[in-house]
């Protein structure tokens, strides 16, 4: 039996709320207000800790539940987003880098963070200083993972010291991670939040929970409405490692899904906005491949299919890929 639709939710991801910051990571205050007004009229905002707990315990959520998150502790969140969210009574979470708080002019101070906390805002770990987690910096695998562990735990300890609690959530800087980092988070008892698109459900991968980027080209309310109403594609196969070597960046992979509420003929997958050939190799499994070498940086393939129960709601899944340059540099 398919997972009931009221056990699915969407998580939105923002950075800047300003018309004076880089457009790629920004929504204007007017756009943001429009997003929140639509959500107020059509959805139920659930605090991220409550949403995650419900998913893990397989509990029912409010119909069309959504959680709101921000990455990086920018002051314009306080100036331009917080009043709007407060007016609507919306709870939200900011993933911050403790080493940068109060150290850069565009960042919140700890005093501001604590004041926002009194208003119900949650704060969580975005690593200490927002480095590229996949950058080995000349270290071997063991040294690299030990350094990541130290960074994550140091940032979490600072958050707990300043705020009095530890959520043990980590939002990956630049959305980048691999299987080894996911295993580290599982070992440490953390949940991981990524930046590929898709809804969440009790069967989601809790070391790489998808969030819908909602800034820049993704700030369009018409397309955001579809995402807010989406469902998590029920993937049954083991996640593939999203990190690719520079000399091996034409991925091929197989995905198995639960077809209880999905017609195979209605599944569509897209890369760079173009439809991909879907090769159904088994009744419930399909194969995809990208023939052109992926450019260094971040790429993703999105797959969607309408629900048989409610064709106006689409199942959604995004497969990210991360590639360094030929010299091993990770791009911002």
Automatic annotation (TrEMBL):
Keyword Transferase carried by entry: no
Pfam families, per database record: Polysacc_deac_1
Predominant subcellular localization, coarse grouping: secreted
Keyword Glycoprotein on entry: no
Single annotated GO MF: hydrolase activity, acting on carbon-nitrogen (but not peptide) bonds
Keyword terms: Signal
Domain NodB homology: 64-289
Gene Ontology, cellular component aspect: extracellular region
Subcellular location: Secreted
Matching Gene3D superfamilies: Glycoside hydrolase/deacetylase
Biological processes per GO annotation: carbohydrate metabolic process
PANTHER family linked to this entry: POLY-BETA-1,6-N-ACETYL-D-GLUCOSAMINE N-DEACETYLASE, PTHR34216
Protein name: NodB homology domain-containing protein
Source organism (scientific name): Lacimicrobium alkaliphilum
